[in-house]
Write the structure tokens for this entry.
Amino acid sequence: MFDSIFRRKEDEEKFRQEGRLPPGQAYTQRFPVLHYGPVPAFNPQTWDFRVWGEVETPLRLSWEEFNRLPRVALTMDIHCVTQWSKFDTIWEGVSVRMLVEQGLIRLKPTARFVMQHAEYGFTANLPLEVVLAENFLMATHFNGEPLSPDHGYPLRGVVGYLPSRPDLMTPYFWKGAKWLRGLEFMAEDRPGFWEQAGYHNNADVWKEERFG
Ligand SMILES: Nc1nc2c(c(=O)[nH]1)N[C@H]1C(S)=C(S)[C@@H](COP(=O)(O)O)O[C@H]1N2
Ligand SMILES: [Mo]
């Protein structure tokens, strides 16, 4: 046990020296579960994924259709506002940027912000450029396995730090909605669930934008 505590400190120091540990964060090997309310059940027959708002054509996909979308894998560091960080987490799923590039989502020029809508009315807002960046994914898999129910099965938003792209804005992990059911493209920004509860709207991990 003392060995593993010592090992954790060593690894933490390594990530700090690589410039990958944001201020006020600590390294964890666990994967804590954090959310408000119960874990929803998943029914592939009734589940749908919708895109609406500032788009040319609203979209509605069944679970089967969603699984035929082009997929990508991404290795990121994730930083929770409750001060834990995990490094080199592997996510697989669908990139919003790719859907836009392939013409599956056609944005109106007025689209500037995105609201993730999840089960039970949970929401998380981000600027359009963050959702279209390489470090945002609608993930179905974590470390090679389908998401566990606690972590958002069957689909969640994830956003993190890509060591190869230090230029990209990196928000805290709450900006990814578990049990994601849709994206609303918006002309004006609106606070999501935690943002209304006092979390910072911008949430940049490097600037420690934790609370508003
Ligand atoms: N649907 C939903 N998604 C959510 C939340 C929530 O309350 N509901 N909480 C957010 C917060 S505050 C955090 S820190 C992360 C935690 O993700 P994890 O449980 O996979 O670690 O989920 C985010 N996504
Ligand atoms: Mo959180």
About this structure: The two ends are 38 Å apart (CA to CA). Residues 2-207 form a domain with the Sulfite Oxidase; Chain A, domain 2 fold (CATH 3.90.420.10).
